[in-house]
Design a protein that fits this description.
about 500 residues; alpha/beta; Rossmann fold; eight-stranded mixed sheet; two-stranded antiparallel sheet; 16 helices; disordered N terminus
């Protein structure tokens, strides 16, 4: 659905009552749209640098010995270096990801933990360099800069919310429900601009006669109207709604079906807040937390284009090199397989890849020729379907080597969820379907875990963690751990 402005249309029950609220505004674009993470990083850098300089000056003033002298230029340079180190550590914790913490306690805990790491690194560097900085100066820099960052953040949050928030890109959101869960979600959304949620109003459920709902904060400064009408595609398009959050745990099946149909027709994403009805939606869902509320949404968030380009480049490079290096091994294994039993050297089978696309996976044949081609994988090495050579191949994972060809062709990736057979994916629910939103891989977190003795779909948590936290460095880390495990014969 287009995000351009749609001319406001009259509303029978609310026309004249909330004329300003029903006006649909166009979202800022181009240079007028600010990036909240960039603003946060810039503010944090300024607070840290200023705090470090003030702390250095205070420590220099309080120190008893005057043998150590420092100039203002040195303090500024040191403050900038400390701020860069601090922000680098903070970025590594994912502190600038879109998360919600209404009381901001979690963010403060992350800042305290990061400040301890940063000052310990600085102390270690000063000791190794034998740079004579007094302990009082180091302590005051740490205390003042940390206090400046935490206090400044709390002060800046109100400024960002009140003055800068309208310039940040947001998605127009309709909240279905009007009870406690809906109010909690509304309060969290308006106090967390980094989530990019712009609540435009509520849809009344169970005959609630309210015409406006206020936030749960102390002063009740924010409110949005309640729309007393059935959710339809026409309504969503008229209000330029992009997201619907179902915040009614007791919604009836009939109303739920109506909301789903309207969202699908209007091309809106639909999310379920604190509602197990999401399990009835057989589509990929992204599950996240918002101040204790579990939210399952059909809008999956992932890394940017740079990650996908780098990941594909890494797949092509490594798979090509590994095929060339392991070519002699392929020949030896092919000969041993053929000597034990007649039949093809490679085992070919249809598997379900990204977005449900079928592809033919390649493996060294480890089972007898007459074994069923599509059946659950053997749970034990003593399975009579497995050949003697096959037991060695499976134990050493050498049967997976031909999948490097699949990676080179683009059917698979080196790292990702393992591809399943079609008859297994047919029974997937919304959580399991999330596995198919990324390229399937040869190795992953599940293969490195102690749960690999169970079926892949019984250990979905490993794939969900990877999908929601994947980076190029995480892929490389998984590959390194796989090499270590393979060397140990695990």
């Amino acid at each position: 659905m287009s995000t351009d402005a749609i001319p406001p249309q009259p509303h029978e029950s609310l026309a004249g009552r909330y004329p300003a609220t029903l006006e649909v505004r166009s979202r800022p674009s181009g240079l007028s749209t600010l990036s909240l993470p960039i603003v946060e990083v810039a503010c944090d850098f300024l607070l840290l640098a200023v705090g470090a300089v003030i702390g250095g000056m205070l420590g220099h003033f309080l120190q008893r010995s005057h043998a150590f002298a420092v100039t203002l230029d040195q303090l500024i340079a040191g403050g900038i270096l400390y701020a860069v180190l601090f922000l680098s550590l903070l970025q590594g914790t994912g502190a600038y990801q879109p998360v919600s913490s209404l009381l901001h306690v979690k963010e403060t805990e992350i800042l305290l933990r990061t400040s301890i790491k940063a000052i310990m690194i600085c102390v270690a560097g000063l000791v190794l360099a034998r740079y004579p900085v007094p302990r009082m100066t180091v302590l005051s820099v740490w205390v003042v800069s940390t206090g400046t960052l935490i206090g400044g953040r709390l002060w800046l949050q109100d400024i960002v919310r009140n003055y800068c928030s309208p310039a940040f890109p947001k998605r127009r959101t309709l909240i279905y429900g009007s009870k406690r869960t809906a109010r909690r979600f509304f309060t969290g959304a308006i106090h967390s601009p980094n989530l990019g949620i712009d609540p435009i109003g509520f849809v009344s459920s169970d005959g609630d006669g309210s015409y406006s709902i206020f936030s749960n904060d102390y002063y009740e400064r924010d409110s949005k109207p309640v729309f007393h009408e059935t959710v339809t595609a026409e309504m969503l398009e008229r209000l330029a709604v992009e997201d619907i959050f179902v915040c009614d745990p007791d919604i009836s099946d009939r109303n739920l079906a109506t909301v789903r149909d309207a969202a699908r027709e209007a091309n809106c994403t639909i999310s379920f807040v604190g509602n197990h009805q999401a399990l009835a939606e057989k589509s990929p869902m992204w599950v996240w937390e918002m101040d204790g509320l579990l939210v399952a949404t059909s809008l999956l968030k992932g890394p940017g284009v740079a990650y996908h380009v780098a990941k594909r480049s890494l797949d092509i490079l490594l798979s090509a090199v590994l095929i060339l290096v392991s070519a002699p091994v392929w020949g030896i294994l092919a000969l041993l397989i053929r000597l034990e039993s007649k039949g093809p050297i490679f085992f070919r089978q249809s598997r379900v890849g990204r977005d449900g696309d079928l592809f033919e996976i390649l493996k060294f044949r480890s089972m007898k020729v007459d074994a069923p081609k599509y059946a659950c994988s053997p749970a034990h090495q003593a399975d009579p379907r497995i050949t003697r050579m096959g037991r060695f191949l499976r134990r050493s994972s050498l049967d997976e080597i031909p999948q490097l060809i699949n990676v080179l062709k683009g059917d698979m990736s080196l790292v990702g969820p393992r591809p399943e057979m079609p008859f297994i994916t047919e029974g997937y629910g919304p959580v399991e379907m999330t596995r198919l939103t990324v390229p399937q891989g040869i190795t992953g977190l599940w293969q490195l875990s102690a749960d690999r003795q169970y079926a892949i779909h019984e250990s979905i948590e490993y794939d969900l963690y990877y999908i929601q936290n994947r980076t190029l460095l995480l892929d490389i880390a998984i590959l390194l751990h796989t090499l270590v495990y393979a060397a140990k014969g695990v």
